[in-house]
Amino acid sequence: MLPDVDPKAALPPITAYYLMRAGRTALLPYFRPGDPAVADAIKGLAGKYSSVLLANHGPVVAGKDLEGAVYAIEELEETAKLHLLLRNLNPRHLSPSQVSELARYFDLPGHSHSDDHE
């Protein structure tokens, strides 16, 4: 994993669709495969995040239905690719006010009116 990743915002808000479909993405530390503690760690994020990256494993996403979860994982994957491709190129992310506007308009999980996460 990349050492400079914020566990509360593993990916930056590059596109509006990333926030609308995948929401903010948390990064959980490594758990060995089959460790029951990973379930508790994920449950602890319910209502705050719609997508989670499990360090050295992969993503977990939630959606209102199967179609929503498919869109979420596709958007998460594309945003992760963009993030890695654009590293060190100083890409323009959505501003905190743009993120707040999307959060209010689309009632995004884990965002309050005072949350301004890049």
UniProtKB/TrEMBL annotation:
Bilayer-spanning residue ranges: none
Residue ranges annotated for the Class II aldolase/adducin N-terminal domain, each copy included: 9-84
Origin: domain of life: Bacteria
Alphabetical UniProt keywords: Lyase, Metal-binding
SUPFAM superfamilies named among the record's database cross-references: AraD/HMP-PK domain-like
Entry keyword annotation includes Metal-binding: yes
InterPro entries: Aldolase_class_II_sugar_metab, Aldolase_II/adducin_N, Aldolase_II/adducin_N_sf
Pfam families: Aldolase_II
PANTHER family cross-referenced by the UniProt entry: 3-OXO-TETRONATE 4-PHOSPHATE DECARBOXYLASE-RELATED, FUCULOSE PHOSPHATE ALDOLASE
Protein name, entry field: Class II aldolase/adducin N-terminal domain-containing protein
